[in-house]
Amino acid sequence: MRGHDLISIRDLSNAAIEALFGLASEYAAEPNRRLHAAPDAISANLFYEPSTRTRMSFEAAMLRLGGQVINMTDPAASSAAKGETLADTVRIVEGYTDLIVLRHPREGAARVAAEFARIPVLNAGDGAREHPTQTLLDLYTIFQEKGRLAGVTVALCGDLKYGRTVHSLVQGLARFGAHVVCIAPPGLELPARFAQLLGSVESYPDFASAPLDACDVLYVTRLQKERFADAAEFARVQASYQVSKATLTRAQPDAIVLHPLPRVDELDYALDGDPRAAYFRQAAYGVPVRMALIAAVLGLRQIPVDPPVEVWTPDDAPFACPNPRCITHAEPGIPRRAETREGVHRCAYCEAKEEAACPVC
Length: 361
Ligand code: NCD
Description:
Elements: H1 14-28, E1 42-47, H2 53-64, E2 68-72, H3 86-93, E3 99-104, H4 109-116, E4 121-126, H5 132-146, E5 153-157, H6 164-175, E6 179-183, H7 192-195, E7 202-204, E8 217-220, H8 231-237, H9 245-248, E9 256-258, H10 279-284, H11 286-297, E10 338-341, E11 344-347, E12 353-355
Parallel strand pairs: 1-2, 1-3, 3-4, 5-6, 5-8, 6-7, 8-9
Antiparallel strand pairs: 10-11, 11-12
Helix pairs in contact: 1-11, 2-11, 3-4, 5-6, 5-11
Bound molecules: N-carbamoyl-L-aspartate.
């Protein structure tokens, strides 16, 4: 995987994910050890959105490998405030570091950064689109807690429309043979492009109607308040769901509760002392899993690169992306490209689809 980007969970084959998990377990066995594996390496955290866990666990991972980290955590205090584009910033930062970890509010931003930077780019969340490194630690946690992924029933709960962790996780779960149940307030259901991966989707509007007794994992998510286009839509769903001890009485006795965190109202604090509350263990796995990923892309450890799950071949025809949250609408200088397959154009960055105009009429 040396030199590779991680933009979508699709960039990793199942074999590569399993190999990364093996390496993560090696690192997790000695969690407080500082290695000297990467004494010359420097990574850059470019965070255009708030973060605690993702940024700090990436930083801790690099420090544990023996490398160093430089941070841009406040776009208001960087040249972004003067109007510098992401494409320019990453071409500057590649001159300073060996690796870029990027979080950005615009969908497709990580793909743009990867196209312009010659060093590996790891997507730490691009708007409501994907968060593949969170998926690695989510899958790793399920594997550690349940001993397998195939056949495990996972309920994805909450804001499945805007939750980027879910958008990456559902792909991973589908590929490893887990069974997925969706529990989302009306209007916040899983978008069709992800639901298609599951074949037929079992979808419920609330915990009361969902078959919790069949679930091994409850993966709870926060309402992504910052992504709602209008305040009335948010007010309608605010405080519409919460997982409490009472909710768990209907789940499998050994069902675990996961959450990418931060939580707001959707997880009762009274759950924290329950051994089934696995969300703090999950967050801690962020360090060894990200150590494994960094070691792989820096070439410190060999992780095989198998054929990607999907091959992208965008053409050079100009394309106006229909997604208003796409990075191409916010930044000049990005070639607006799409892939065209069976009459459908798909933005090369955010992957939003648009029917091609009929060549006859
Ligand atoms: C998530 C994110 O940023 O998408 N947090 C994280 O990375 N652990 C989830 C969230 O903010 O709700």
